[in-house]
Task: inverse folding
């Protein structure tokens, strides 16, 4: 069964901390994505990557960065966590460009206090 | 800004009834749409897609209708079951990435 695994289900961090959210896929997919999900706002794209060491900004990249050193792993980094980054974070992957049948992880609920 | 949006944030139906979830889009050049289902505690899951050269596409108990004239699509679930309770998103590719609507939460009453 193909999988996208997010390392933490729940996280609580303090304001100003550097936070790493990890995502691993075992499907040899080229594309990986980070979304955040907030009530009433749906899913908003933060960053995505079409290949190793490649990254592209999504719609709301401010306050975030990403790293993709290996094909299977895509990390989201909150450089200095703030309370407005409290959210559900969803990682997804797809086989290649033009394939929109994304496989999502179960999400990481991050609370910044 | 968003190019797809859903009409209602919540929908409650009786078990066994049919459900209709609506979505509007703004770009008349849009040619591909996808519906995702997100159950509680899980990530969204692909349900069904439709291309603009079709008006209707059927899956197992689900049908998606596309009305290009009014830029509207709907997801119809036949004989709704408790397991259909979830948040449903329409999504559209834009600039090589998926843009999601706000979601409709479907509740199924026994």
Result:
């Amino acid at each position: 069964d193909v999988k996208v695994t997010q390392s933490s289900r729940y996280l609580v961090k303090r304001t100003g901390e550097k936070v790493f959210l990890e995502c691993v896929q075992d499907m040899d997919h080229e594309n990986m994505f980070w979304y955040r999900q907030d009530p009433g706002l749906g899913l908003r794209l933060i960053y995505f990557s079409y290949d190793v060491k490649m990254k592209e900004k999504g719609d709301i990249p401010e306050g975030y960065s990403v790293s993709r050193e290996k094909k299977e792993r895509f990390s989201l980094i909150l450089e200095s966590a703030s309370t407005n980054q409290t959210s559900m974070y969803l990682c997804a992957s797809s086989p290649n460009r033009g394939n929109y049948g994304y496989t999502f992880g179960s999400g990481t609920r991050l609370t910044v206090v | 800004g968003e190019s797809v949006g859903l009409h209602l944030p919540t929908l409650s139906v009786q078990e066994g009834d049919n459900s209709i979830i609506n979505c509007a889009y703004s770009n008349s050049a849009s040619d591909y749409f996808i519906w995702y289902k997100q159950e509680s505690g899980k990530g969204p899951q692909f349900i069904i897609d439709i291309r603009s050269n079709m008006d209707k596409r059927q899956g197992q108990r689900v049908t998606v209708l596309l009305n290009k004239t009014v830029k509207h699509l709907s997801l119809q679930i036949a004989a709704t079951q408790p397991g259909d309770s979830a948040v449903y998103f329409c999504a559209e590719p834009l600039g090589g990435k998926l843009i999601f609507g706000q979601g409709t939460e479907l509740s199924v009453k026994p």
Notes: Chain A has a mean pLDDT of 95. Chain A touches chain B at residues 4, 33, 35, 40-45, 48, 58-59, 90, 92, 97-98, 100-102, 104-107 (CB under 8 Å). The longest strand of chain A covers residues 31-38.
